[in-house]
Design a protein that fits this description.
There is one protein chain. The protein is about 35% helix and about 25% strand. The protein has about 130 residues and is α+β, with helices and mostly antiparallel strands. Strand 2 (about 65-70) and strand 3 (about 80-85) form a beta hairpin. The radius of gyration is 14 Å and the shape is globular.
């Protein structure tokens, strides 16, 4: 893993909107990282679609605890989404919501590649209530 990618992921973990001391305290959490490459000609539309989806998901779904999306300064078409769900059930329910389906269907022709990374938290600390 490139050091730049590692630092980026580490920063995302540090600025998460949940304060926990260990994974054992939150063993039911689902923590995922999505790495996407977006068609650069559709990047602005994709960002708007993703932003709308994230805002609605966090506001309306109690099981969506964190949904952060960032893009690489040097490669703006490389997007990373960091998600934390209260449980597997909350994650499954999220996938069935109208706002997720709108995002997924609306962006399917914009996404050139998608890598989903399942993770386990080490430390999830933040001073942010809403980073965006």
């Amino acid at each position: 893993m490139k050091i730049k990618n590692f630092i980026c992921l580490l920063c995302i973990f540090i600025t998460t909107a949940i304060s926990t001391r260990s994974y054992g305290q939150h063993k039911d959490l689902v923590v995922r990282i999505a790495k996407l490459v977006i068609d650069s000609s559709q990047l602005d539309t994709y960002k708007m679609l993703l932003k709308e989806h994230a805002e609605i998901a966090v506001r309306k779904e109690p099981g969506v605890l964190t949904l952060y999306a960032v893009y690489d300064k040097e490669k703006p078409d490389h997007v990373t989404v960091f998600e934390i769900y209260a449980s597997k059930e909350a994650y499954r329910a999220h996938l069935l919501t109208a706002h997720f389906l709108k995002y997924k269907n609306g962006s399917k022709n914009m996404v050139k590649s998608l890598e989903l990374v399942e993770t386990l938290p080490i430390a999830l600390e933040s001073k942010f209530k809403n980073a965006g």
